[in-house]
Amino acid sequence: MAERIDPWGSGEVQDYRRLMTDFGIEPMEPYREAFKANRYIRRGIIFGHRDFGRIADSILKKKPYVMMTGLMPSGKFHFGHKMVADQIIWHQSCGASVYVCAADLEAYVVRNIPLAEAREIAITEYLTNYLALGLKPPFTFWFQTDYKVPYYRLRDMMSKEVTFNELKAIYGEITTGKIFSAITQSADILHPQLSGPQPTVVPVGVDQDPHIRLTRDIAARMAHSYKMVAPSATYHTFMSGLSGGKMSSSNPASYIALTDAPEVAKKKVMSAKTGGRATVEEQKKLGGVPDSCSVYELCRYHLIEDDKKLEEMRAKCESGMIMCGECKKNCAGLLERFLIEHQKKRVEAGRQARKLVEELR
User: Fold this and answer.
1) Hey, which bits of 178-337 come out as E strands?
2) CA 251 to CA 255: how far, in whole Å?
3) C-beta of residue 245 within 8 angstroms of C-beta of residue 254
4) Mean pLDDT by 10 residues, the chain (361 residues)
5) Is the dihedral of CA 223, 227, 231, 232 positive or negative?
């Protein structure tokens, strides 16, 4: 049975390799050496792509390209979201023009979040954290409900290029709200090219691949009206929730928000699911299983940059040299230091975010 991916759902991916085969996603391995400075690429967290060769060529030859992303303003900004923020910032450092869309319209249509609330979440949770993490102006930021006529014209013209049956084949069960959302997201991705065709990369979790495939098809079909390069995409694996399963914004126990008080975050780590054995004796004899440990994953994705230190952590776990309690304490210490420093940066970043949004009016 093929893997199923739902951009509006919260299901887990059981087999990434099978998913790549089922949907024609290319492996990222050929680019690991050239871009090993990016820990997500280096560690295989960014595991697949569509047409990343165009982006690699732009980076290595210092040619213009676009990094486009959308944010769903529906809840707290947590470490699962930080993966995308880090990629935005990395692409900006590589010379990309950054475009960030706040999907307030999709939040309203699909998730029933009032527009004013969605806008506030976008500013205080997402834009503020992006800036505190290192995103630097100038970059293009907009709300779906508050943009320019050429963008809306592009979106409306796109609706002619797809059929209802095609959307059902891509997404499965579909509603009028989801249809509108899918077309709007395609316009978000392609509109940076209204001023001229150029390579565009969209870093996403693999659950967003249906939107990427639809947008690439639409770009090809609209050649009669617009000259556009089909967007590229990179795909990252999901972080596990602290209590097991997929990390979810609707379950605060499953994630650590970047606004969590350090003491609260440390308690979450100390109660997190690990890959430890049932008893200390078994742990010493058999070793732990780091690939099933949300604490190791938090370090691998975010808290330990040095590969040698990460490998040392893994080796101690697998050999039974370290118990889960000690490992949790080490992780909690790293997390506390990160959050204290980050939350200091959020103060100025929050003012900067408000100013940036005011300038949109």
Assistant:
1) 200-205, 232-236
2) 7
3) yes
4) 56 79 94 97 98 98 97 95 97 98 92 95 98 97 90 92 91 87 93 94 93 94 90 95 83 93 97 91 92 96 98 96 94 98 98 94 71
5) positive
Backbone angles phi, psi at 173, to 5 degrees: -60, 130
Determine contact, residues 11/246, Cβ cutoff 8 Å: yes
Q: Give me the CATH topology for the region 16-238.
A: Rossmann fold (3.40.50)
Q: How far apart are CA 335 and CA 340, in angstroms?
A: 9
Vertex 245 angle, CA 241 and 250, to 5°: 60
* Beta-bridge mates of residue 311: none
Would the pTM count as exceeding 0.90?
Answer: yes
Domain layout of the chain by residue ranges: 16-238, 252-348
Domain 252-348 coded CATH 1.10.240.10 = yes
pLDDT at 2: 47
